[in-house]
């Protein structure tokens, strides 16, 4: 498997394809065996549930497929990219990018910058025209802290047109409120993840409905759930 070197895993399991919430667990692998660390936490996902995304896992799996604007979180196994936030620095070993008013994530499928976080001061204002993903949400909607801290879930890294973009783990706007396709959580959960994740451990982010996770877990060598050996 493409994630055979992974020694850390963030695992989100949802009740079914249409559920907008799930449970997040964290695992470390030692001597080939996964061990849960920390406590399970509630998170929310896309308002319309989840669908297979493009990541490290094989394609052609039965079930819905992630599309741009479908309100679903990508399911599968994904790399974890850089962290980002409003402050100049954050307590994390991940690469960290401080967001400014000029930063956008390009969710315009026809753009050559599709599925990338870019700085309009670098690429030009015309290049970010049409983006609905400003990275400083607090400057657009006073008090919006969703992107105060987060990290990139590496869905669709090849930027396949219309396959979905700008997928993050970020903070809740309100507890229990679903997202447009990201995974949202409470501040303490995010703080713990960012302090724990280490690039040298090749961490992965896994999201799947319960039935699909149980079916694929052994074959894909994923961490066991509480009631699995």
In terms of structural class, how would the helical and strand content be classed? alpha/beta
- Extract low-pLDDT stretches: none
* Extended strand count: 12
Helices, by number, come to 4
What is the arithmetic mean of pLDDT? 96
Q: What is the terminal separation in angstroms? A: 21 Å
> Would you list the SSEs in sequence order as H and E?
EEEEEEEEHHEEEHEH
Largest sheet: 10 strands, mixed
Shape: globular
Quote the beta fraction: 25-35%
Q: So what's the oligomer here?
A: single chain
Global Rg: 17 Å
Proportion of helical residues: 10-25%
Features:
4 helices, single chain, two-stranded antiparallel ribbon, ten-stranded mixed β-sheet, 229 residues, alpha/beta
Describe the protein's architecture and organization.
It is a single chain. A hairpin with a 2-residue loop joins strand 2 and strand 3 (33-44). The protein contains four helices and twelve strands. With 229 residues, it is an alpha/beta fold. The mean pLDDT is 96.
List the helices and strands and how they pair.
Layout: E1 8-14, E2 21-30, E3 33-44, E4 50-52, E5 73-85, E6 96-98, E7 103-105, E8 117-119, H1 120-123, H2 137-140, E9 149-153, E10 168-171, E11 183-185, H3 187-196, E12 204-209, H4 210-220
Parallel strand pairs: 1-12, 4-5, 5-6, 10-11
Antiparallel strand pairs: 1-2, 2-3, 5-9, 5-12, 7-8, 9-10
Give a brief description.
The radius of gyration is 17 Å and the shape is globular.
